[in-house]
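anyone seen this seq b4? input:
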Amino acid sequence: MGMRIMSGSAGSPATAAAWQQRQQSFQALKQALSSNQLDAAKTSYATLTGNSPSNPNSLLAQIGKALAGGDMGAAQQALSAMRAAQHPAAQATSTPTATVGNNVDVFV
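predicted toks r here
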């Protein structure tokens, strides 16, 4: 399952830099979760999500709720669910597709 992050106008250098920062933040979140570093995971999650509203039922929101409660196990389970949901989507398309617009897809 891809995660859609809203951004500015597509194709601009600022958008590319913002996308790269989000990718790095997501990678840092995954690393912190895999190494049981709660504070680092909270920091990475906050950097990744910023003030962006997200679906409270999304797996990313579940990670945030788990981290806020200090439950690394639940956060890791939500990340695993994101990976499992992404796997079939990755098989369906052999290459990521780009569209013109204001969305950036982050793949787990």
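Strands lie at 3-6, 103-106. The two ends are 8 Å apart (CA to CA). kinda curious what u guys think
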